[in-house]
Design a protein that fits this description.
heterodimer, A: alpha/beta, FAD/NAD(P)-binding domain, Arc Repressor Mutant, subunit A, five-stranded parallel β-sheet, 32% helix, 21% strand, globular, B: Rieske Iron-sulfur Protein, 9 strands, binds siroheme, binds flavin-adenine dinucleotide, binds iron/sulfur cluster
Chain lengths: 812, 110
């Protein structure tokens, strides 16, 4: 019979150990996991980007519920172990389960340290440890107001930047004189403070908290020097303490953490411990790399392997704040016999300090350019003799060892097989190369899955890609994201995410913060940025007319001869004698050379002089017609067929449905143009199945189709779902347009977008999850409130952009 | 002949206006830092009205097929070739003046 292994703690160290055991011998243990948190195992490190909005929880799940099932692991999520009996070898849980074990693994992590000041229990005081904490902070941030973060270490700063990204006014209160004093020296600490202040955070150093103020809810904070600060939220991020209560009660030996030997055995037989809860050779750890090493050692031990055991870890740190590049490792206190090699570039905000003793790297602090961190760390761990590199070491690996090597992959090629690529998971270059060749891996994701390289903080994904490309040669296509255009290194997706995450409000702000390489962009990125901002800030963004193509700027299509065409809306393809008469009248009055029936079921007036546009619109407006947006990356037309009003086969009222859709969606701006159609039966006379959103009426209601295109690459729609009522159709249409508006890249039509993200993704948001659909729909309607204003009317009145339609001067 | 044609503020930042003249339309551009340039309003490609394009840096993207024209020289940038004729401008205070092209002197460019 299999031995029973119980794991207490469904966190990073515990589950990594389980993965390592499964890798070595999946059949050996019958595994049960207790986790106090009511959710699957996730990457705790990535809570910071979840807080800042750059990632969502789904992105950071490590092992899904299906994974537990597939591997025959019983998971009790949301059920904490409350007692261990080491004599009967059983554990008891909060919900009253008692289970026996052959081997027990403690992986309970640590608890945030709460400073014992008055007010620490008030409503509005939170810590930063798990997803619940993040949700609390996000809920508080929704209300706006002020946040104070106590603690200017890694965790505190990531919390502060995250809260700022959510729109709060943030102050960091730090006891010591420099931020991150355990990782950074004073110079780097100073640069960090100015960077954070530049982003609008306030930083108080040498500030000792005396009390948190408020009756039931936090209202502020008092410092020992008497200063009082207002606050609606206080985040305590002052440190962690190993979570040992359970072990202590069970009589297991405790120091600062659960005491373990090199095999991760505690003082009690068959009880092991890994992770932040342990004390090993007098040290406790608060980073994942050592925990993963512990997990490997223990897995080897539990599966009968012989190993050297765990000998302790040297760690390095990186701050995960987008745009702030900080790295530190080792000892940089200097002192007797230590030499400093320092490099500064004030203009670029770069500071590097390498501490060398006896020709060996003893520590490194990098600020502003941390890409060589891993290399220095490797030199340090290897105790390499650097006397030969002494003169160039500070410029980084590409330049060290003589001669500038501009090619970054040359540096990776030069790495030894035992050079560490992924610091979090301790994966060396050789491991990656072996995995690639043995398993025929070709993508970053596959390497991630096989080796764990770049699976935690993702900082090394660039290096892993270079190893891939070196190993596979031409067979590998670097997945480096394509930048939006020559003005930036960021991709469309990244720019969109960062605009939202950092709450950017204007094109110049985006260009400044994301370091555009041109002063005011180009004709490719400006319209895209204008759209992204408009979509992110529907109620407040002021459209930048100069960043729109001429057609959208003057609300008419430019023709090859410099004249314009005018297409008024004909709702659902319906028109009337009054509209037709008004059109006939403007054609005569302004001597418009041609009128044509378009492929979109309406009329196009060709060859209108630019100066006449406002007057033409005024006349069309007077007959009740508005802009048809035939010129825009926007809702174009909703084609309809005769439907059951007239047709002998019609099952529903296609005309009425089409008009309702057009009236709800007109005016909306989209990443590319957006067309719809409604057919009254599956004969599909309105060609609904080559539209961005198509409706085909059936006896029982309306079948909805998405992602069609009748243009350059004809694509038939994918079937989404069938709904019953007209109101359902409207809700799905609005929600679908909104998810397209929020997620697609500028100038990407729904057809390629649907193919890129997959129909399942769309179904998951629209069909499988009523709440998500309703939320998307609600956001669409909020945005429509601001957008449904006839652009022609304002210009016809002459109140907007009059300069567009008149020459500056007429000279002989 | 120098001629007053309007003020800097008559033209939107990163935008353009047209001066209609006997010799054809002249596009007057204003950059983000308020520099003013003038070109004949004809793209060397297929005659697109440059005044209708997107102004960025010291260049304009033609509205018809997106060629980029350098506002300083009138030259087409990048892979394509061609040149739009420039017109001398001066700005004093807010006032823009244009040196109206001499009818005889056409043909050097464009
Ligand atoms: C006027 C019209 C042709 C007509 O007389 O029927 C037309 C005219 C133009 N179409 Fe179209 N399209 C027109 C219906 C269509 C249709 C049919 C339809 O909507 O049912 C299609 C195929 C369906 C589709 O889009 O999926 C169509 C597919 C395109 C495409 C290819 C799109 C694609 O994704 O592959 C372009 C190029 C583009 O958008 O980049 C395009 C672009 C153009 C432009 C805007 C070219 C341009 O950038 O200047 C043309 C403007 C002419 C002008 O000077 O006014 N037009 N165009 C139709 C206006 C419909 C309306 O009432 O708004
Ligand atoms: C916001 C944040 C950012 C971080 N950034 C980094 C970083 O950039 N780099 C880095 O290396 N490290 C980082 N860390 C630290 C890293 O996340 C931890 O070192 C790591 O998660 C510790 O793993 P663990 O398994 O020991 O503890 P945890 O991951 O905390 O897992 C312990 C689990 O045990 C559960 N548990 C506790 N008691 C019981 C019980 N009695 N019964 C059942 N379950 C119990 C807990 O609920 C928890 O889920 C960060 C941490 C945070 C919070
Ligand atoms: S098919 Fe469309 S884009 Fe092509 S010439 Fe006709 S109207 Fe213009
Ligand atoms: S006419 Fe200017 S690019 Fe074609």
């Amino acid at each position: 019979m299999k031995q029973k292994l119980i794991v207490i703690g469904n966190g990073m160290a515990g589950m990594r150990t389980v993965e390592e055991i499964l890798k070595r011998d999946a059949g050996l243990y019958d595994i049960t996991v207790f986790g106090a948190e009511a959710r699957e195992n996730y990457n705790r490190i990535m809570l910071s980007p979840v807080l800042s909005g750059e990632k969502c929880f789904e992105d950071i799940i490590i092992n899904s519920r299906e994974w537990y099932v597939e591997n025959d692991i019983t998971l009790f999520a949301g059920d904490a172990v409350t007692a261990i009996d080491t004599t009967t070898k059983t554990v008891t849980s909060q919900r009253g389960l008692t289970l026996g074990y052959d081997k027990l693994l403690l992986a309970t992590g640590s608890d945030p340290f709460i400073i014992p000041v008055p007010g620490k229990d008030l409503d509005g005081v939170v810590t930063f440890r798990d997803l619940d904490d993040v949700n609390r902070m996000l809920a508080a941030a929704k209300l706006g107001g002020r946040a104070i973060v106590i603690g200017g270490g890694l965790l505190g700063l990531e919390a502060a930047v995250g809260l700022k990204a959510n729109g709060m006014d943030v102050t960091v209160v730090h006891l010591m004189d420099t931020l991150m004093e355990r990782q950074l020296d004073e110079a780097a600490g100073y640069l960090l403070v100015s960077e954070l202040e530049g982003r609008g955070l306030k930083v108080l150093t040498g500030a000792n908290t005396k009390a948190i103020l408020g009756d039931t809810k936090v209202t502020g904070l008092e410092l020992v020097d008497g200063t009082q600060l207002k606050a609606d939220l206080v985040v305590m991020a002052v440190g962690i303490k190993p979570n040992v209560a359970l072990a202590r009660e069970a009589g297991i030996e405790i120091g600062r953490g659960v005491m373990v030997n090199d095999q991760m055995q505690t003082s009690t037989a068959d009880v092991y411990a890994v992770g932040e809860c342990v004390e090993h050779r007098g040290l406790t750890y608060g980073l994942v790399a050592p925990l993963f090493e512990m997990g490997k050692v223990l897995a080897a031990h539990l599966t009968g392997g012989e190993g050297v055991g765990y000998e302790g870890s040297v760690t390095s740190t990186k701050l995960k704040v987008t745009g702030v590049d900080v790295f530190s490792a080792g000892d940089f206190s200097g002192g007797d016999g230590a030499e400093d090699i320092v490099f500064r570039d004030a203009a670029r905000g770069v500071y590097k300090r390498i501490v060398v003793r006896d020709d060996k790297v003893e520590g490194a602090v990098l600020y502003g350019d941390a890409k060589d961190g891993a290399w220095y760390f490797q030199l340090m761990k290897d105790g390499a003799d650097i006397s030969e590199l002494r003169d160039t070491i500070v410029f980084g690996q590409a330049y060290a060892g003589g001669g500038a090597q501009a090619d970054p992959s040359a540096a990776v090629a030069a790495l030894a097989d035992d050079a560490e690529i992924c610091g979090c998971n301790g994966v060396c270059k050789g491991d990656i190369v072996t995995a690639i060749t043995k398993n025929d891996l070709t993508t970053l994701d596959q390497v991630k899955a096989h080796t764990k390289a770049s699976a935690s903080c993702c900082g090394c994904s660039g290096l892993v890609e270079q190893v891939l490309s070196l190993t596979l040669g031409d067979a590998y296509q670097m997945q480096t994201v394509k930048p939006m255009c020559g003005c930036t290194v960021h991709s469309h997706d990244d720019v969109r995410r960062l605009i939202v995450a950092k709450d950017m409000k204007s094109i110049p702000e985006v260009m400044q913060q994301l370091e555009w390489s041109t002063p005011d962009g180009c004709s490719s990125c400006r319209p895209a940025l204008n759209y992204y901002l408009l979509c992110a800030l529907p109620e407040t963004y002021i459209d930048d007319n100069q960043s729109r193509f001429i057609n959208e700027r003057v609300h008419a299509n430019i023709q090859k001869d410099g004249t314009f065409s005018v297409v008024p809306r004909m709702w659902g393809g319906m028109t009337s004698a009054k509209e037709l008469r008004a059109i006939a009248d403007v054609v005569d009055k302004f001597e418009i050379p041609a009128v044509k029936v378009t492929g979109g079921q309406r009329l196009d007036l060709f060859g209108v002089q630019k100066k006449d546009l406002p007057a033409v619109w005024a006349d069309l407006n007077a007959a009740g017609m508005v802009s048809g947006h035939a010129y825009g990356k926007s809702l174009r037309t909703v084609k309809t067929c005769a439907g059951n009003q007239w047709c002998r086969f019609g099952t529903q009222d296609a005309i009425e449905m089409g008009i309702a859709l057009e009236q709800m969606t007109w005016g909306s701006w989209t990443p590319h143009k957006f067309k719809m159609a409604v057919s009254g039966c599956p004969r599909n006379c309105a060609e609904a199945t080559i539209k961005d959103f198509g409706v085909v009426a059936v006896d029982s209601g309306y079948a909805l189709h998405v992602g069609g295109n009748g243009g350059i690459d004809v694509r038939v729609t994918d079937y989404l779902t069938t709904v019953e009522t007209e109101q359902d159709v409207l809700e799905y249409a609005g929600a679908y347009m909104q998810i397209y508006r929020e997620e697609a890249r500028y100038l990407e039509r729904t057809a390629p977008w649907v193919e890129r993200v997959g129909l399942d993704h769309i179904k998951a948001n629209l069909v499988d999850d009523d709440e998500k659909r309703k939320a998307l729909f609600a956001r669409f309607m909020v945005s429509q409130k601001a957008l449904q204003e006839d652009p022609w009317a304002k210009r016809a009145e002459g109140v907007k952009d009059a300069h567009e339609f008149t020459p500056l001067k007429i000279v002989a | 002949m120098w001629m007053e044609i309007g003020t800097v503020n008559d033209i939107p930042k990163l935008g353009a206006r047209v001066v209609q003249s006997g010799q054809g339309d002249i596009a007057i551009f204003r950059t983000a830092d308020d520099e003013i340039f003038a070109l004949f309003d004809r793209c060397p490609h297929k005659g697109g009205a440059l005044s209708q394009g997107i102004v960025h840096g010291k260049a304009v993207a033609c509205p018809l097929h997106n060629w980029n024209i350098d506002l300083v020289t009138g030259e087409v940038k990048g892979p394509d070739n061609g040149c739009s004729r420039t017109v001398p401008v001066s700005v004093s205070g807010d006032i823009i003046r244009l040196q109206m092209p001499d009818v005889k002197a056409t043909g050097t460019h464009g």
